[in-house]
Design a protein that fits this description.
56% of the residues lie in helices and 0% in strands. It is an all-alpha fold.
């Protein structure tokens, strides 16, 4: 889609048009928060936590947009390849024309926002941490970011996330719990429930479809690691 071609179906619930609107809307909300949070009243640590999360959401959404609508990151050409418009403020006028920043700038801003956010964010965000950035979620995001730009930092942030929470979801156990009795809807609801931290800021419809298409394992894989099954 980095060619910005219009040869795709519009108005899909998980299509590129929806993604464009959804992520830029979230960026706008983040910028509203960032423009007002310093002057807000209330507990200072709570305010800084909100500010950190807004920075992380802004970084995450731009990261998703640049990987949907621009070329794959290549350090040797990033300062020449067109990316997306990186929004650091809300619109103050009715009609504004934006330019596409290059990939190097976009990735640099994503890193800057995310690292600032990590410094500010606390560890306990809400009773439903899956819908908020926690420390481990932020580290997981940066691990993914650096997977695109540098393997050393990727490992560093992966280790940081795992030190906080090292459990890995047992998809094989889930498979037998639901699929052996053909309870596909039960698996879908459980996989996307707020109690399971498995996919960062996930969309239920999109992630269920992607798992169904790519997440199942072969019998040979199952037999290799689970003897007697």
């Amino acid at each position: 889609m980095y060619l910005w071609s219009d040869q795709y179906i519009l108005n899909l619930p998980v299509g590129p048009e929806f993604a464009w609107d959804h992520y830029y809307h979230s960026i706008y909300v983040s910028n509203v928060v960032l423009e007002g949070i310093d002057d807000a009243t209330g507990d200072e640590s709570f305010k800084m936590n909100i500010k950190g999360e807004a920075l992380l959401v802004r970084a995450y959404c731009h990261f998703m947009l640049v990987n949907l609508f621009a070329r794959q990151y290549d350090a040797s050409t990033a300062d020449q390849d067109l990316g997306i418009a990186y929004m650091v403020a809300t619109e103050k006028e009715g009609i504004v024309h934006y330019k596409r920043d290059n990939l190097a700038y976009v990735y640099g801003q994503v890193e800057k926002d995310a690292l600032r956010g990590i410094q500010l964010i606390g560890n306990d965000n809400s009773d439903f941490a899956k819908y908020h950035f926690t420390k481990e979620a932020a580290y997981a995001f940066m691990s993914r970011y650096y997977l695109f730009t540098g393997i050393g930092e990727c490992i560093l942030y992966s280790d940081s996330a795992l030190r906080i929470k090292s459990t890995v979801r047992n998809l094989i156990e889930d498979y037998h719990t639901y699929f052996d009795i053909n309870d596909f809807e039960g698996f879908q609801n459980d996989y996307c429930s707020s109690g399971k931290e498995n996919v960062l800021l996930m969309n239920k419809t999109l992630e269920w479809n992607s798992f169904a298409l790519t997440g199942f394992y072969a019998n040979e894989f199952l037999g290799e690691f689970l003897s007697g099954i």
